[in-house]
Amino acid sequence: MRAPLLNSTEAELPISQQNHNIVRLATAQALAGANSVVFYATGAIVGNTLAPGSALATLPVTVFVLGMAACILPFGALARRRGRRAAFMTGTGAGVLTGLLASLAVVLGSFSLFCLAAFFGGAYAAVALSFRFAATDGVGSERRARALSLVMGGGVVAGVLGPMLVSSTMNAWPEHTFAVTFLAQAAVAVIAAAVLLGVKSPAVADHTQHGGRSLHEIAHQPGFRRTVFGGAVAYMVMNFLMTAAPLSMHQHGLSLQAANLGIQWHVIAMYGPGFFTGKLIQRFGASRIGAAGLLITALSVLAGLLGTDILHYWLSLILLGIGWNFGFTGASAKIIEFHRPEEKTRVQSLNDFIVFGVMIVGSFSSGALLNTFGWNAVLWGSLVPVVAGFLAMVGKNNTARG
User: Fold this and answer.
1) Closest listed residue to residue 37, CA positions, set 121, 153, 152, 162
2) Residues 6 or more apart from 139 whose CB is under 8 A from it?
3) Sign of torsion, CA 342 346 226 219?
4) What residues pair up with 10 in beta bridges, in sequence order?
């Protein structure tokens, strides 16, 4: 038996308000997504310039992920006690701070300050990922997967905006490459905050702040842990490969513009399917779509193993983005079947905390693996978790109960 998705503790919003929220959250996803794109496109390159050794080149990206993992539970607690808007404003504030600190770090040549900026960038990314769940608040069960995937689809704009910010501003201050880029990133975070102010959540009874089952009971539902693991693998492998790809392209003599374009198409591929993933989930089920995403991720690895020409990197990154969308959206849509309205922020935060915690390992190890053994080792190393995640998503007990 599935957990009730809407009950007396959470009122269903009017359709017009649901649509209004989806548009605003999708817009905010696009703007906030640019924060992540900028950091993923520049983090390893700036890190390689500022770090005391090449082995630490991807440390800022790892710290970015650490910021996501460290902040997701506090943001969830803040949303539970003060509402989603409080979490949104705190997160976008961290996004503004990210750009300002990163720009200052470039000017001063400070690796430690750049890593601090990365941590706040991760905090912003953490709250941005809660937008997908916020879109399902007060939405009927038949529209929830669709609402979630449409908000993720808003990230397509991030795939254009992020690289455009990098390309158009990275040399605006010739003495300090990327300094102006990070200032532009801070300005975009301010705009995102203004957009999020218009999102309205349904009224929830006061007792739900402390109600609901224990996390232990929720986590022991058949299929819950399999779903969390499958989503974590989809995100970790995407991060594992995307972190190393720009630096690997640089090492193989490809231009920064080529790397930026590859990341741009990768991000478009990550979020573009969001406009129809929800319909696919409604037709085939969340678990099947999640498993399909992991299969596509495996194809991206095989594409990367074919060679190190620019087209090999681009094809691999595009498939990686599509695989992430199907895998992560499928897992996210499945997660909402395991909790009741009064449990949502705790369960969603726990899920994302585990996802980001797993990502930390992948993010840091990808740089060390790339510098020590090369790009092919990074690719082969990603196949084991992909296979394990696929088996988890197709497990017989991947069902929800109340």
Assistant:
1) 162
2) 12, 13, 18, 147
3) negative
4) 204
Q: What is the distance between the alpha carbons of residues 56 and 111, in angstroms, rounded to a whole number?
A: 10
Helix (H, G, I), strand (E, B) or coil at 10: strand
d(CA 4, CA 336) in angstroms, rounded, equals 10
Structure tokens given for 254? 């490809």
Q: How far apart are CA 352 and CA 355, in angstroms?
A: 5
Domains, the chain, ranges and CATH?
15-393 (1.20.1250.20)
Distance spanning both ends of the chain, measured CA to CA: 6
CA-based angle 42:274:325, to the nearest 5?
Answer: 60
Helix (H, G, I), strand (E, B) or coil at 204: strand
Give me 317's structure tokens: 């990154």
CB 130 within 8 A of CB 87: yes
The tokens for 44 are 């390893």
Determine the Cα–Cα distance for residues 10 and 94; give it in Å rounded to an integer. Answer: 30
- Closest listed residue to residue 270, CA positions, set 225, 320, 227, 232: 320
Helices (H) and strands (E) in the chain, counts: 16, 0
- 346 contacts 212 by C-beta, under 8 angstroms: yes
The backbone torsions φ and ψ at residue 135, rounded to the nearest 5 degrees and listed phi first, read -65, -20
Query: Helix (H, G, I), strand (E, B), or coil: what is residue 377?
Result: helix
Q: Which residues contact 309 (CB under 8 A, 6 or more apart)?
A: none
pLDDT tens track, the chain, 402 positions:
344 444 445 678 889 899 999 999 999 999 998 888 888 778 878 988 898 887 787 789 888 988 988 898 899 889 888 889 999 999 999 999 999 999 999 999 999 999 999 999 999 998 998 898 899 888 887 888 888 888 988 888 887 888 788 889 988 998 998 999 999 999 999 999 999 999 987 765 544 455 677 777 888 888 888 888 998 999 889 988 987 888 888 888 888 778 878 887 888 898 888 888 888 998 899 899 999 999 999 999 999 999 988 999 999 999 999 999 999 889 988 888 887 777 777 888 888 888 877 877 766 677 778 878 888 999 998 999 999 999 988 875 455 544
Query: Taking the CB of residue 142, how many other CB atoms lie within 10 A of it?
Result: 9
What's this model's pTM, rounded to 2 decimal places? 0.75
The answer to whether the beta carbons of residues 158 and 29 sit under 8 Å apart is: yes
